């Protein structure tokens, strides 16, 4: 019995190591970009994350998101999702120092520009300080709203299901205010349209 357990543990360790080396050498591949892959990744990250701080409301898929009140770039408070009543939201968490976040911003901006007033509204939430975000947006401007939050165990990304604080992180919130989808990692060019529609 002990030798069987040992063999299984070695096999599990080798499989995990193989998966890590595969991701490192060949990128995430199509599985990580699939809904099944994202759900598996979300589950794995949630299972290894510390419990959320006491009293912090954390939304899971299908849950109504907790109300957020965050400053915009001018310091004015914005209520999420109430500022966009009855509209679906694509909320993207990023930071000015996050390379993959920066790479996906043109794709987010393209998608935002393709939506009319009744379409999916893109909202960026920078887990960063205001000065760095302002300087970054001078170099790489976007036309969708940017809000600010301080990274930490109680930040808005944690409240919307990102307990490990991995960036970039994106959620799709339905017009009813319920969390519909989650994505860890950057969008590739042209990927958002299909992701929103699935």
Using brief descriptors, characterize the structure shown:
198 residues, alpha/beta, five-stranded mixed beta sheet, two-stranded antiparallel ribbon, 7 helices, 40% helix, 18% strand, globular
Kindly estimate the percentage of residues that lie in beta strands according to DSSP: 15-25%
Count of extended strands? 7
Assign a percent range to the helix content: 40-55%
**Low confidence ranges:** 10-27
Sheet with most strands: 5 strands, mixed
Please provide a brief summary of the model.
With 198 residues, this protein is of the alpha/beta class. The chain is built from seven helices and seven strands. The protein has a five-stranded mixed beta sheet.
Overview of this protein structure:
Strands 5-4-3-6-7 form a 5-stranded mixed beta sheet. Strands 1-2 form a two-stranded antiparallel ribbon. The chain has helices at 2-26, 29-32, 35-48, 99-114, 130-139, 156-159, 191-197, and strands at 68-71, 77-80, 89-94, 121-127, 146-149, 169-173, 179-184. 25% of the residues are buried. It is globular. The termini are far apart. Mean pLDDT is 84; it is low at 10-27. It is built from 7 helices and 7 strands; from the N terminus they run αααβββαβαβαββα. With 198 residues, it is an alpha/beta fold.
Sequence-ordered SSE layout with sheet pairings:
Elements: H1 2-26, H2 29-32, H3 35-48, E1 68-71, E2 77-80, E3 89-94, H4 99-114, E4 121-127, H5 130-139, E5 146-149, H6 156-159, E6 169-173, E7 179-184, H7 191-197
Parallel strand pairs: 3-4, 4-5
Antiparallel strand pairs: 1-2, 3-6, 6-7
